[in-house]
């Protein structure tokens, strides 16, 4: 009863979405969602690569600016790139 969505139900859902958000904002929302997905994917890959290459023992964090990474939303998109500050361990043990 509730598990089957046919063409009329899908069309009704799309009409409600267009009425709620407006036709002009939907492409911007989709673009933003795609950009967020690319950033998430690149961060997950960077974390995976970082875990594979971290064979050295843990020491104090490196504070020189040459090791600062940059996140880019899309390849070649320099307008939205931003530097990332690595988290530091501030807890006292």
Question: How would you describe this structure to a colleague?
Answer:
The protein is built from 2 helices and 2 strands. The protein has helices at about 5-20, 25-55; strands at about 70, 80-85. It is elongated and about 55 Å long.
The total count of strands amounts to 2
Structure annotation, total helices: 2
Mean pLDDT: 75
Helix fraction by DSSP (H/I, runs of at least 4): 40-55%
Question: What string, H for helix and E for strand, traces the elements in order?
Answer: HHEE
Shape: elongated
Assembly state (oligomeric): single chain
- What does the largest sheet look like? 2 strands, antiparallel
- In whole angstroms, how far apart are the ends? 57 Å
Radius of gyration: 21 Å
Task: Work out the strand percent.
Answer: 5-15%
Structural class: mainly alpha
Low-confidence stretches: none
> Can you list the strand order of the major beta sheet?
1-2
Describe the structure in brief.
This protein is mainly α.
Keywords:
93 residues; mainly alpha; two-stranded antiparallel ribbon; 47% helix; elongated
SSE layout:
Elements: H1 7-21, H2 25-53, E1 69-71, E2 82-84
Antiparallel strand pairs: 1-2
């Amino acid at each position: 009863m509730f598990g089957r969505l046919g063409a009329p139900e899908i069309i009704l859902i799309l009409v409600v979405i267009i009425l709620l958000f407006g036709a002009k904002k939907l492409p911007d929302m989709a673009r933003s969602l795609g950009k967020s997905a690319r950033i998430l994917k690149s961060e997950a890959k960077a974390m995976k690569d970082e875990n594979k290459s971290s064979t050295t023992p843990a020491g104090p964090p490196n504070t020189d600016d040459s090791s600062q990474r940059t996140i880019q939303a899309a390849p070649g998109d320099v307008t939205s790139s931003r530097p990332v500050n690595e988290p530091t361990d501030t807890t006292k043990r």
